[in-house]
Specification:
By secondary structure, the chain is of the alpha+beta class. It has one domain: YaeB-like fold (2-Layer Sandwich), CATH 3.30.2310.20. Helices cover about 35% and strands about 25% of the residues. It is built from three helices and six strands; from the N terminus they run E-H-H-E-E-E-E-E-H. Strands 1, 2, 3, 4, 5 and 6 form a six-stranded mixed sheet that branches. A hairpin with a 2-residue loop joins strand 4 and strand 5.
Length: about 120
């Protein structure tokens, strides 16, 4: 296994996933940190219950703390996981809006990268 990285995607001065994480409790943040460490060691091979592939390119990191279901959405570019969105999941099904927001941010990332704006 290689070494993997993760990055929090930023547009302008907005870092969406990090802004979400800052609002979590210290204990919830600790749980998320553990899952992020798994990303670094397992890379794209991380699977349920820790992470789940939602569609062709978007994944969700799935930490939970008590009854709180935390979801962080990301995609891979090479050996780097780019975190683009985060939510507290309140139902069984992943909200379509969260998936669409994540896909839009991923598309903007690749568009900016191809235009050398990153």
């Amino acid at each position: 296994m290689g070494e993997y990285n993760y990055v929090f995607y930023t547009e302008g001065n907005k870092c969406f996933a990090m802004d979400f994480l800052i609002k979590l409790s210290e204990k919830e943040q600790g749980k998320v940190k553990y899952y992020l460490d798994l990303i670094k060691t397992r890379g794209p091979m991380i699977r349920e219950p820790y992470a789940k592939k939602l569609n062709g390119s978007i994944y969700e990191l799935r930490p939970s703390f008590g009854k709180t279901e935390i979801r962080l959405f990301y995609f891979w570019d090479g050996d780097t996981a780019w975190f683009v969105h985060g939510i507290i999941k309140k139902s069984q099904k992943t909200p379509l809006e969260a998936l669409l927001v994540s896909e839009q941010r991923m598309k903007r990332y690749f568009k900016a990268k191809s235009g050398n704006r990153l």
